[in-house]
Amino acid sequence: MLSETATPTRPRGLSDLPPVTSDSLLALIAMAKADPREDKIDVGVGVFRDASGRTPILKVMKAAEARLLATQDSKSYLGGSGDIRFTDLIRPILLGSHAGDERIAGLQTPGGCGALRLGFELVATANPDARVLVGRPTWPNHQPVIEGVGLEIVDYPYYERDSREIRFDDMVAALKAARAGDVALLHGCCHNPTGADLDAGQWAEVTRIVAERGLLPLVDIAYQGFGRGLEEDAAGLRGILDACDEVIVAQSCDKNFSVYRDRVGSLFVKTAAPAASKTAMAHVLQLAREMWSMPPDHGAAAVRIILDDADLRAAWLIELEAMRTRINDVRRRIAAADPRLAYIGRQFGMFSMLPLSKEQVVALRERHAIYMADSGRFNVVGMSDDALPRFLAAVTEALDG
Ligand code: PLP
Are strands 264-270 and 104-110 parallel, antiparallel or unpaired? Predict the structure, then answer.
C-alpha cells in the first residue's frame, strides 16, 4: 500500500527526452538561410545548382509530370515494391549486362536513404554479427543508418584531406583484416564528401579482395551520371557484380533526375540463386512494410514515364549531361585558380574537401558569408557563376593562412 507521503514516481515521458545533437549539415543549411547578407554563398547543401545558382526542375521532368497528371486515373495502392516498371527500367541503367540476372531482385524505395536503411536492415536480419567497414570520411548519414539497425561499424581511413589522396593501402589492409560476412560499404561513384573515386585498377583490387574474403559489398550509388557518365559511373559496381554472388545496391534517382524532395530510389539484392533472392526479397518487403509500408509514387512514376519514352529518355540524357558538364567545368575553373586547388579538377561529383581548419571555415562564414561544412567539404556547384570569383578569392585567402 502506498504511504500517504510517498510521491508516486512518474514514468519517463516525452518531456524527458534528451537533446539531440543535430545533423551538422542540416544545422549549417539553417544558419545559411538565416543569414541576411544578400551575397551569401551556401556551398554546404548537397543539391545541384545551375550557372545562375538555381536548382531547377528538369524540363523533361515537367513534361513527364504533366503527362502523369493527365493520364493517372487512380491512386489506389501499388504494393510494397512500388512501381515495378520503374525498377525494371532502372535495372539496365544501373546493372548493365547484369540487368537480366534472375539472382538480382529489386524494389522501389523512398530515395537512396530508404534503400540504404532497407539494405542494412536486411543484413542485420541475415547476420546480426556482421560488421560494416566504413572508409572515413563518409557521408554523415551512413553512421546513423548503420547504427540504427544495430550493426557494428569498423572504421578505416579512406582519404587524407591534407595530402588530397586516397589512403588505398589502408583501405586494402582494412578489407583484408575483415571477417567473412562483414559488409564493405562502397561509394559507387562521386564519393561524398571527398570527390575522390577509386580508379579502375583500385576497383579491381577492392573487388578481388571482397570476393576472396567473402565480404558482402553494399554499393551506395547516389550520383550516377554526375561523374564521368552513366556507364562509366557504374563500372565499379558492375565489376563487383561480375565477381560476387552476394551484393546489395542502394540507388538514388534524386540527384540525376533532380527530384530530391520526391524521394526516388531503389534497392537491389543479389544472392547466389534465384530462389534465395526471392526469399531475400520477401524479407525486404516485410522490413519495408514495418517502416513505410509502400514507397511514395509520384517521383518514381514520373521517372518511369521518362525512361519508357524514347524522346523523353533522350531529353533526360541531354539534361543529365548538362549537369555533369557544369560540375566538371566548375571543377576545372576552381583547379585553374590556384595550384593548391589543382586536385579538385581530378575529382568527381558535387563534393570536394578544402584543407581548411575549423577556424578558417568559421572565418569564411563570418567574414565572407560563405557556408561550408566544418570538415571543409563544399559543393562545387553550390554557387552561381557570378559568385565563383568571390568564392575563389576568399578560399585562396583562407589557404594563405
Ligand atoms: N548516399 C550518399 C552518398 C548521398 O550523398 C546521399 C544523399 O545525399 C544519399 C545516399 C541519399 O540520397 P537520397 O536523397 O536519395 O535519400
Answer: antiparallel
C-alpha cell at 225: 551520371
Q: Mind listing the pLDDT tens digit for each residue in 244-298?
A: 999 999 999 999 999 999 999 999 999 999 999 999 999 999 999 999 999 999 9
Beta carbons within 10 angstroms of residue 27's beta carbon: 12
What is the DSSP-derived secondary structure letter of residue 196? Answer: -
Q: Measure the CA–CA gap between 84 and 107, rounded to whole angstroms.
A: 7
For ligand 1, say whether the CB of 112 is within 6 Å of any of its atoms.
Answer: yes
Domains of the chain from N-terminus onward: 23-58+325-400 (3.90.1150.10), 60-310 (3.40.640.10)
Instruction: Provide the β-strand partners of residue 131.
Output: 152
Q: Ligand 1 centre from 260 Cα, in Å?
A: 9
User: Where in the sequence numbering do the catalytic residues fall?
Assistant: 139, 220, 222, 255
pLDDT tens figures, 148-183 = 999 999 999 999 998 999 999 999 999 999 999 999
Rounded to 10°, the helix 235-243/84-95 angle is 90
- Looking at ligand 1, which residue's alpha carbon is closest to its atom 9? 112
Percentage of the chain modeled with pLDDT above 90: 93
